[in-house]
Specification:
single chain, Amino acid/polyamine transporter I, about 0% strand, globular
Length: about 425
Amino acid sequence: MAVTEAVRPRLVTRLRTGSALLGPAFVAAIAYVDPGNVASNISAGARYGYLLVWVIVAANLMAVLVQYLSAKLGLVSGRSLPEALRARLSRPARLAYWAQAEIVAVATDLAEVVGGAIALNLLFDLPLIVGGLITGAVSLTLLAVQDRGGQRTFERVVTGLLVVIAVGFLASLFVEPPSAAATVGGLIPKFDGSGSVLIAAAMLGATVMPHAVYLHSGLVRDRHGRPDGVRRHRLLRATRVDVGFAMLLAGAVNLGMLLLAATNLQGQEGVDSIEGAHGAVAAALGPGVALLFAIGLLASGLASTSVGAYAGAMIMQGLLHKRIPLVLRRLVTLTPAIVVLALGADPSAALVVSQVVLSFGIPFALVPLIRLTADRDLMGEDVNRRSTTVAASVIAAIIIALNLVLIYLTVTG
């Protein structure tokens, strides 16, 4: 009994210390469950059933390695990925690199603001443009929390929203469980025509998000600085746990979205849009589940647009070494989304297209990340193992190849 009582305080202390190290990966994970994911995954499930389950599983496995490398870069080098790039690029190259990153940031904001607007329309019947403005305004409030309350307060708020997102999109699986056999069958990689390739690319763009790759390195650096020796190794172990738990939760939510559509919406007319899916969910599973769906979508839009704006500011500061007022920067990336809503464009189609744009930005984040974390001069004894570099290079090659196929199908289709 005495031994047990002596061990228990140490165990509690270790658990508390370990949990205190978690957080940055859960902020990055918001990018993996944004409204673009909802549109892509619902479309995939409604059109192709369980066919593309393997895409979600593969994309989230890729994300685990990618996000860990990003976090390791920030922890070991003491630099964010944009800062490390600035040190190695000429001024013209930095400007060009920043320009493509800004285009990706605009596409990111488009998905997140439109998703928030759709959720507010479903919940309160607000016009989409009003919902978009409210989503943008709330994102500024959440960013103010980060500015005034500090990073850990922001991490707690965002992690809370991530839990709301998970509940919102996983609740339906308990009401109407998916087919286990069909889900396992969907793990076999295959396509069904060019349309499934397009959706797969959109799903990939919605899962491995460029701004999450840039952001995670800065989040870890800001949280822990550049530790030495034993503390760095302990933090690297904690980071692996942080990334593992965060990506597991994000992957479960993504899979839940697809299984929801595959189980309840496949073959129905007009359900490959978020609004149509919401209506079909209400009809099939009841208004309670539909309400949770809409609340999850709203939490997704509000959290992801805040995280996206945070990432955009970090990218600009890292690459150009310049800060601009947060409100001005928010307006720059928010304006295209508001214009799309004002013009009456199909919001769900805009979401899917935005994810395809994001998939084109992934190589610009992945290739430098792999090269930097494989550089012994920068990473020292924590440089990537050869097997890690090979695995990360294969991931980058798969993503780039899928994008080239997508370009070909778009041009010839």
